[in-house]
Write a structure and sequence with these properties.
Blueprint (H helix, E strand, L loop, with lengths): L8 E5 L5 H11 L6 H10 L3 E6 L2 E11 L2 E9 L8 H15 L4 E6 L4 H9 L3 E12 L2 E11 L6
Parallel strand pairs: 4-5
Antiparallel strand pairs: 1-2, 2-3, 3-4, 5-7, 6-7
């Protein structure tokens, strides 16, 4: 029996030197990607920005905004070459832990209706739809709505 080496995964804070790799994954993943400047602004603003590395290479990232007992998942992405391995679920779980550790009781996010893989991931993690933002996202033929979803991290006391 031949032993198969499992890849080494690490989740760590995003650093300035990660921005080229993060932006490359973003550009490879989305038709209307965030700019490198948006990621840099998130780092400067002190938002929790994390990268998921596999064998030392940035395979994905997540960006949160946390305040007043709430978190907003601003961006979560696994690069095309790394998809289908459970890394998105792993990254999402860790980001939810980070939100909890920072006092968030509820997490919000927006997702495109045209991204059923992401939508299904969020539903499987316990998120549910609470509304729509009309014409929120740029789209090839104009604008696309956003599905607004939420997850309660801590049950409210009665």
């Amino acid at each position: 029996m031949v032993a198969v080496a499992r890849p080494s995964t690490e989740m760590r804070l995003m650093r300035g030197e990660d921005l080229p790799a993060v932006h490359a994954l973003e550009t490879a993943s989305y038709e209307f990607p965030w700019t490198a400047g948006i990621f840099a602004d998130c780092l400067r603003a002190g938002h929790p920005c994390w990268v998921l590395c596999v064998d030392g290479a940035v395979a994905g990232y997540g960006v949160l905004s946390i305040g007043a007992g709430e978190a907003h998942l601003l961006n979560l992405c696994i690069g095309p070459d790394w998809r289908g391995r459970g890394l998105g679920r792993h990254l999402l779980r860790r980001l939810l832990d980070i939100a909890r550790w920072n006092g968030a009781q509820q997490v919000f996010l927006e997702v495109r209706p045209s991204n059923p893989v992401a939508h299904d991931l969020y539903v499987s993690a316990g998120f549910h739809e609470i509304g729509r933002r009309p014409r929120y996202y740029p789209a090839k033929d104009g604008r696309e709505d956003a599905i607004v979803m939420t997850l309660e991290l801590v049950k409210p006391s009665v």
